[in-house]
Amino acid sequence: MSTAPAALATNDPVLLGFAEEVGTDGPVAVAGRRTRWTTGGTLAPDTRVIAAPSGIVEHLPDEMTVTVRAGTTVADLHAELAAAGQRTALPDRGGTVGGALAVGENDLRALGRERVRTALLQVRYVSAEGRIVTSGGPTVKNVSGFDLPRLMVGSLGTLGLLGEVILRTNPIPPVSRWYAAAGAHPRAVLETLLAPSAVLTNGETVWVELEGHAPDVDAEAARLASIGSFAEVAGPPELPVHRWSLTPAEVLSLHDTGHVIGASDFVAVAGLGLVFSHEPQPPRSVDPGVAIIAERLKQNFDPTGRLNPGRMAGGTA
Ligand SMILES: Cc1cc2nc3c(=O)[nH]c(=O)nc-3n(C[C@H](O)[C@H](O)[C@H](O)COP(=O)(O)OP(=O)(O)OC[C@H]3O[C@@H](n4cnc5c(N)ncnc54)[C@H](O)[C@@H]3O)c2cc1C
User: Fold this and answer.
1) How far is ligand 1, taken at its centre, from the CA of residue 43, in Å?
2) 96 C-alpha vs ligand 1 centroid, how far in Å?
């Protein structure tokens, strides 16, 4: 497994301080805002819990990149970027940049934004040995070897502890509107519209987000009107707290069956495999081959099992 080439080594005192805090032995985990704290299992009780550094290091609006410490909240990051008319693909659900990446969930508007995995261009994380590892780069030409940034997304801090990342930024569209209609079908919406940013359903009502320049949004709204009695609404519905990961086909069929097995109420995101429910998703079986690779990866990255013990990274949509 490759580590940082000398050219990418850092003498940044903030990251060096973080690495020192992680140290070289004993169980350790990073806490963000704890909005997904029990995802992947319960942390072993004797684990030292630390925080990642926070703050925005550099925003380059013309390059459409931002370098940010992992402990920064997504809300603070987006507030800063909004001043320059930009945002990132990270979901803002009260968590930190590092937490959002470690959990690896896509924003419910991922159809119209990037996936979290592709928005992450570079990571600087502290390894189980206490070393700062840099991987990826703000431009594609700087990147070679394994794609460690993508591996880190959804790894729940079990392979490395994120200190700083470079994310791709995107322009905030001039117009962003939500529409809702009872009795419409999400499949019809996906087939009729050119590029909705989000299509949600609870089995009765369908919500659609349209974004872009006003004439394009107006044209999409006219297409929507041809398939249902859509009216503009303030925003998406309140999401139940638990997140399920299904296939996009299963999500569409949820609309027809009207329920998630074992759950009483849900909001499903069409076009992605995401469902929010009041009930936690039952454990899913993992392909045995994938389980072996995951175990070997963990063994290589963290031979003593000191990073986030008790948690196991699963699949994310
Ligand atoms: C009601 C609700 C709705 C949500 N809806 C969405 C949604 O629509 N789309 C979506 O994408 N997400 C959604 N989320 C999830 C949200 O994005 C995550 O909660 C957030 O990304 C986690 O950030 P956190 O700082 O709270 O992490 P924490 O809960 O503090 O930590 C989560 C895990 O990440 C690890 N971790 C945290 N920081 C680091 C780090 N720097 N390095 C390594 N590991 C780290 C922790 O050890 C822990 O295992 C929702 C959450 C809630 C509660």
Assistant:
1) 15
2) 7
Distance 105 CA to ligand 1 centre (A): 8
Q: Are strands 198-201 and 161-168 parallel, antiparallel or unpaired?
A: unpaired
Rounded-to-integer distance, Cα 310 and Cα 247, Å: 27
Pocket flag, ligand 1, residue 159 (CB < 6 Å): no
Q: Indicate if the pLDDT at residue 261 is higher than 60.
A: no
Which domains does the chain possess?
12-171 (3.30.465.10), 175-277 (no CATH)
CA distance 90 to 96: 9
Substitution candidate for ligand 1 out of 77, 90, 93 with most atoms within 8 A of CB = 93
Question: Which atom of ligand 1 is nearest the CA belonging to 36?
Answer: 29
| Residue to mutate (ligand 1; options 35, 48, 73; most atoms within 8 A of CB) | 35
- pTM flag (> 0.90): no
Q: Token pair for residue 102?
A: 């470690």
What separation in Å is there between the alpha carbon of 19 and the centre of ligand 1?
22
SS (H, E, C) 167-233: EECEECCCEEEEEEEECCCHHHHHHHCCCCCEEEECCCEEEEEEEECHHHHHHHHHHHHCCCCCEEE
**52: its two tokens:** 């990642």
Question: Of 152, 147, 85, 107, whose CA–CA distance to 125 is shortest?
Answer: 152
Report pLDDT digits (tens) over 129-165. Answer: 999 999 998 876 656 678 889 999 999 999 999 999 9
* Alpha carbon 174 to chain centroid, angstroms: 24
How far apart CA 4 and CA 124 sit, in angstroms, is 9
